[in-house]
Design goal:
This protein is an alpha/beta fold and about 400 residues long. The chain has 13 helices and 11 strands.
């Protein structure tokens, strides 16, 4: 029945696309460990026997999303941490490309300044696009602050390295080689990557952000898609997407809702009470055990103008929460019965004007049985209603909402 529900959803076009996003967290940090989950978390705490089961379980959950009718799946890149044990999302994407046949595969994304040379990203993404026959969504990120400690890269060069790496990848994908690229950080005598992507001139590009104005403006200028990073109060997302719409207007065009995506934890159970009972402990494991350290921002990593914008939302970061009422009030996670989850998501999609919903259906220490049931209930009871509510060609955001 669940398979039929997923297939039925694709009988009519939807203005909103639905993705299952997986962080691949480590759920077994010792109870007596009180340090950060990033950079310096001792790797002696990692149990390869646990990890072996986790990787295969998490891949199965992503593959299951296709069976349930999701439009796509999302994975991402982080290093030296328990928050997400996926230092190479391209390895995961290559497996998904072979073991699925329909869903988009969004790598959100490769941290470009960490690659030298960045032609490696162009090559690996092109391979994934070929294996999947054109289903890759290419995500590019500057990389989180902790990554610059993990890789001992000067954070003051982050933006310059990102820009040069981006330009090299686009050159490799869209121009015939051999050619040359000479920049400040990368000097390549022969840009001549094999293979090229199936999608022409290049795959859809997503870039996530946490409020950096430079990121918002770059995405708008390139006409890419901006993905709002979660764990903030809903008001922070409303401001971010308003700024992104304004950045698109400044570039001379009106943004398409498919250019924006909202990433949020989602948990569905039969009743509101059951949902909270099953989910709350796993949420707090995530917020109090896995988030600490993610906020590391090395000197020079962020410009002054962006720091001022990011600080407006810093006090509302999920790691600072103390009560479940705060989680509910700020919509840090959408948790409840199918009706409750549908109603909340419907309001938020209209409020934010985003055409991509990226759901975190596994979070923290949430076990396999609850994760799969969560995916099933969302796919059968919530997703078809949202797709019908937002048909293709219908405006998502209210006109009044676009005026600040």
């Amino acid at each position: 029945m669940l398979r039929r529900a997923g297939e039925a959803r694709h009988k009519y076009g939807a203005c909103v696309r639905f993705f299952s996003f997986h962080l691949m967290p480590y759920p077994d940090l010792p109870a007596d460990y009180e340090g950060p989950a990033w950079v310096t978390v001792p790797n002696s705490l990692y149990d390869p026997a646990v990890g072996s089961k986790l990787y295969n379980r998490y891949l199965d959950e992503l593959i299951y999303a296709e069976e349930l009718g999701f439009d796509g799946v999302c994975i991402n890149e982080h290093h030296q941490n328990a928050y997400g044990i996926m230092p190479s999302p391209n390895l995961m994407a290559s497996i998904l490309a072979r073991q699925t046949s329909r869903v988009k595969i969004a790598v959100v994304g490769n941290a470009l300044p960490l690659y030298d040379p960045p032609t490696r990203v162009a090559e690996e993404f092109a391979m994934i696009d070929n294996i999947s026959n054109g289903r890759l969504i290419a995500g590019f990120v500057v990389g989180g602050g902790p990554e610059y400690y993990s890789f001992s890269i000067n954070p003051a060069h982050a933006r310059e390295r990102f820009q040069e790496a981006h330009d090299i990848i686009m050159k490799a994908w869209t121009e015939d080689g051999p050619s040359e690229f000479i920049g400040r950080h990368y000097k390549l005598r022969f840009v001549n990557t094999w293979p090229k992507p199936v999608q022409q001139p290049h795959p859809e590009v997503w870039i996530p952000g946490a409020g950096s104005l430079e990121t918002l403006e770059f995405v708008a200028r390139q006409r890419y898609a901006y993905m709002g990073i979660p764990y903030f109060h809903i008001d922070v997302f409303e401001r971010q997407f308003r700024l992104f719409r304004e950045a698109c207007e400044a570039e001379g065009y009106t943004y398409d809702p498919k250019q924006a995506g909202w990433l949020t934890p989602i948990y569905v159970a039969e009743t509101d009470e059951q949902a909270r009972r099953e989910y709350e402990d796993h949420w707090w494991y995530f917020a109090k055990r896995l988030l600490p350290g993610i906020e590391i921002s090395p000197p020079g990593y962020t410009s002054l103008r962006s720091v001022e914008n990011i600080l407006k939302g810093r006090g509302s970061f999920a790691m600072n929460l103390e009560t479940w009422d705060q989680v509910v009030e700020g919509q840090y996670a959408i948790v409840g019965s199918p009706d409750t989850v549908y109603e909340q998501l419907e309001r938020d999609i209209v409020r934010l004007g985003t055409g991509n919903l990226l759901g975190l259906f596994q979070l923290g220490s949430l076990p396999e049985d609850l994760t799969r049931r969560n995916l099933e209930l969302f796919a059968s009871e919530v997703m078809p209603r949202l797709a019908k509510r937002f048909p293709e060609g219908q405006a998502i955001i209210d006109a009044a909402t676009t005026v600040a």
